[in-house]
Amino acid sequence: MKFFSGLDPTAGYIFALLAFAAGFLVRPFGALVFGRSGDMVGRKYTFLVTILIMGTSTFVVGCLPTYEAIGLTAPILLIVLRMLQGLALGGEYGGAATYVAEHAPHGKRGLYTSWIQTTATLGLFLSLVVILACREFTGTAFDDWGWRLPFLLSAVLLGISVLIRLSMNESPAFQKMKEEGKVSKAPLTESFGQWKNLKIVILALVGLTAGQAVVWYTG
């Protein structure tokens, strides 16, 4: 509550929910923006941009002044950073699924891409371990400044992630399409402007992803 301490309880509660929801609201836009650039420029460079946005936003949260220092600007900046995280994640997840699927052997795409969701859950558990370790390390000082440590330590993971992504190659399928000049010139129109493709998107969103997200976050 460091960012909402000066607000009345109702306003503070609304801002806290908004900070959580902000990341979700912009995810579809991240998927559209970075999905399009991934289809036209390449997966590797899009991955670099999304991880830099995500990592930098996370690190900056650890440096953000509290409400006591800058007033209402603090929760507003927090929500902006959450939106940047959501924007990056929207592009990251779809790009990762495409990248893995294009590398997967024939008949194994479902198995290979399922690891993306599995490792997202493992990442949640890892974050809890880091928080518990920081609580143990800082003791009573956790509420004062120790809560910043997990965000600041994310810079280490950001550096490792950037190095890994710099060493990645474009997927064979995308490279082949690029060499043959078959890269889509209007990926958004082809994906959402044609009913045969749009109905698959709607089925995946409403029939699978939405329900899964509700169960996952409720859990």
In brief, what are we looking at here?
The protein has 219 residues and is an all-alpha fold. The chain starts with 8 loop residues before the first helix and ends with a helix. Helices cover 79% and strands 0% of the residues.
Give structural attributes.
219 residues, mainly alpha, globular
How does the overall form come out from the CA principal axes? globular
Classification by helices and strands? mainly alpha
* Rg computed from alpha carbons, rounded to a whole number of angstroms: 20 Å
Counting H and I runs of at least 4 residues, what is the number of helices? Answer: 10
Assembly type of the chains comes to single chain
Low-confidence stretches: none
Q: Mean pLDDT score, rounded?
A: 85
* Distance, first to last CA: 23 Å
Share of helix, binned = over 70%
Which range does the strand content fall in? under 5%
Largest sheet: none
Helix and strand pattern: HHHHHHHHHH
How many strands in all?
A: 0
Describe it for me?
The protein is mostly helical and 219 residues long. The chain is built from ten helices and no strands. Helix 3 (43-63) runs antiparallel to helix 5 (73-103), helix 3 runs antiparallel to helix 7 and helix 5 (73-103) runs antiparallel to helix 6 (109-138). The chain is globular.
Secondary structure blueprint with pairings:
Blueprint: H1 9-25, H2 27-40, H3 43-63, H4 67-70, H5 73-103, H6 109-138, H7 148-166, H8 172-179, H9 187-192, H10 195-218
Helix pairs in contact: 1-5, 2-3, 2-5, 3-5, 3-7, 5-6
